[in-house]
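Posting for a labmate who doesn't have an account.
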Amino acid sequence: MNRKELDPGKSPKAAYGARLRSSREERGWNQEQLAERLEYASSHVSAVETARKPPTLRFSRSADLALGTGDLFERLWRELKHGVLLEGFPEYVSYEACATELWGFEIGIVPGLLQTPEYARALAQSAARRGSISSEHAEERVIALAERQAALIRPRPPMVFVVMDESCVRQHVGDPEVMEAQLERLVEFAANPMTVLQVAPFTMGERRAFRLPLNLVTLPDRSVVSYTESLAQGHLDREPTTVLPVLMTYHQLQADVLSQAESVALINEVRKGIS
């Protein structure tokens, strides 16, 4: 039998199929055995795994029941249906969960891994009010973010380096209590021995190297992948010839922005102005 290799980063549908295959193989089942438990044809299972056919809600719930995955596939289906997962993001999250180092740059909002639930909920509910997502999916976003954050709490957590544009600190999200708690969370993050937090001040002007959010992941084998995102498109890059120059530029940015002590001082200054 020819086995088609899957690329989870190709599309949300491909990410769903790859996760279905890996969950099936973890249990030692072939497609026929899973199909029997789902009460679908094995050809249908094959088509979903290889992204030739989209999953349905019924299929996803049956997969969760058969594979004992809670509501994993139902949540993936809802994310796929609402078009929330950009290309490359599902695979990036899988890399993030086993990273030895994480490097991030963000503009406008606090990076997801540093967001409080209240801050994340305010952002998600704002998207729901605009009609970008449903109110149901707004809460699912908050839950999914909490799961990403929880995945980093392990015996050997990764080193996390974050550079935030000053706009992340200055732009208010939610009510004053939400913003105050979020800024306090940033100060706590900076105090962790496994983290480094720096702010790129507005005064940097054109010297700020990046104009879009950026994420870099160092894997256990010391290889590095990058993930960038615009409003409607995500891009995962594993090619060393293009990723390593980006990492070098990131290091140059770190040397040019505020130190961690200066960054914390700026954050505390902003906290004083919240009323």
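Reply:
Got it, the structure tokens are right above this. The chain has a mean pLDDT of 89.
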